[in-house]
């Protein structure tokens, strides 16, 4: 029986694709994907591999926080709030009470200051020196002249200062109350005094 198929190719030297394989799937080494983004692409590929391996989205969040830069334009200076107010009316009764207390305090300070000043001048010998000079200038053969030390004694000075303080209390209280009435009348025409108040946060 004669073989009519002719010369058949040798399958041992055939290196092409086997039946059922696509052309290009059979390679000699491991597959390396193209590097589109350089080192950043490798990091992204590693992060993706870690995510698919079971890390979830935690690896991606950590990478985003590591590359996040702090803001440098944050505002650190505190804001100042301002309010513009107007004094429309002054209560005469409250003005009288405040002025009365302030005038009493001023009167007490006047009495204390006068007594301290008299003690200092007496310790320095001012009254004796000036009193001797005035006595010699106003004296005569029949009289000794004007006695300054007896006239400017401490009880007399304190009494005179107390009288002045009482008059000052009455006048200051009356003038302050009258000023409150006058201010209320003028505020009805011009609107009163405007004030700008500021509050720091």
Give an overview of the whole structure.
With 201 residues, this protein is mainly alpha-helical. Helices cover 56% and strands 8% of the residues. Helix 3 runs antiparallel to helix 6 (154-190). The radius of gyration is 54 Å and the shape is elongated. The N and C termini lie far apart (113 Å).
> Would you count the extended β strands for me?
2
Unreliable stretches: 39-57
Helix content: 55-70%
Widest β-sheet, arrangement of strands: 1-2
For the biggest sheet, the summary is: 2 strands, antiparallel
Strand content: 5-15%
Report the C-alpha radius of gyration, rounded.
54 Å
Shape: elongated
- Give the CA-CA distance, first to last residue: 113 Å
Q: What is the ordering of alpha helices and beta strands?
A: HHEHHHHE
Number of helices: 6
Provide mean pLDDT, rounded. 74
Report the structural category: mainly alpha
């Amino acid at each position: 029986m004669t073989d009519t198929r002719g010369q058949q190719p040798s399958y041992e030297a055939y290196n092409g694709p086997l039946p059922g394989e696509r052309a290009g799937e059979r390679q000699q080494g491991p597959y390396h994907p193209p590097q589109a983004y350089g080192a950043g692409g490798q990091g992204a590929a590693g992060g993706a591999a870690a995510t698919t391996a079971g890390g979830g989205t935690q690896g991606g969040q950590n990478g985003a926080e590591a590359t996040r830069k702090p803001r440098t334009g944050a505002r650190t200076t505190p804001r100042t709030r301002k309010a513009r107010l107007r004094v429309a009316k002054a209560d005469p009764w409250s003005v009288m009470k405040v002025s009365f207390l302030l005038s009493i305090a001023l009167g007490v300070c006047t009495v204390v200051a006068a007594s301290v000043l008299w003690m200092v001048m007496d310790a320095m010998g001012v009254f004796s020196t000036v009193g001797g000079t005035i006595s010699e200038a106003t004296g005569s053969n029949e009289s000794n002249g004007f006695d300054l030390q007896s006239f400017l004694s401490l009880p007399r000075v304190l009494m005179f200062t107390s009288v002045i303080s009482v008059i000052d209390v009455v006048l200051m209280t009356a003038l302050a109350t009258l000023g409150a009435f006058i201010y209320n009348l003028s505020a009805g025409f011009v609107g009163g005094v405007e004030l700008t108040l500021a509050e720091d946060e």
